[in-house]
Model the fold of this input.
Amino acid sequence: MTRPTIGSLRVDGATLHYEVRGRGPLLLLIPGGTGGAAAFDGVADDLAAMYTVAAYDPRGMGRSTLEDAGAEQFVAEHADDALRMLDLLSPGEPARVVGVSSGAIAALHLLTAHPERVERLVAHEPPVVEVLPDASAHRALVARVQETLRTRGLAPAMAVFAAGLSKDGDSGEPQAEAGLPPGAAARAEQTTAGLPYFVGRIVPGFMSYAPDVHRLKALSDRLVLACGQDSHGELPYRAAAFLADALGSDLLHFPGGHTGLTTHPAEFGTLLREAFRRP
Done:
């Protein structure tokens, strides 16, 4: 793996850690969950053959620190962080952007707020549950997760959350990391420290976000909505598919499930390159 150039960017209320590889037009990678920039390690080198690839830890995650550790998190603020990265690394030029999971929600807001800065966005399984007809049920899920976190702790809250995301409400252990290669498994273990922040701050802030569907429809030629081919029926898949239908757009299927980026990195990277070549 190529050693990236490491940098830090001061933004309002936080300092962002970022990594850059390759040369060419900018490709900004926005991670979801607690993985941070390392979530893209399996695809970054391959993409760097064509692009200047930049990935970063979202504010409050990994090596990106908050000035106020207890600050509430907002999608618009995270999208503004992405904009600051674009201003730093591709000033005045539109860039290609990839967002996964919660990072895809931030990327959708970036597209609607600053379309002139985004040449094309691939948004993989953004859990924009507010677009769904049963959105009220998912608001109740988030409330249950928060109450469980407050009264019983992280592990029970994660179990409630995983059950709510699943196809059938199975309350067993989450299966997101099944089949990970050894390097990715080691990284996943290191990210568990970010789970309290993710569950307590990111989940409520992001799953209450309602995208501007009319604005996205007007920008749909710049947007590729994607899902994992093994994610059918799961909540993030349902939300992304419903949004694609509302926009009159095709849904691009990537290998694996919600974490296909880490379970199938080679195939994921190949499809990303193809998505950016689509007319």
In short: Residues 169-180 have pLDDT under 50 and may be disordered. The beta strands are 5-11, 14-21, 26-30, 52-56, 65-66, 95-100, 118-124, 223-228, 251-254. DSSP finds eleven helices and nine strands in the chain.
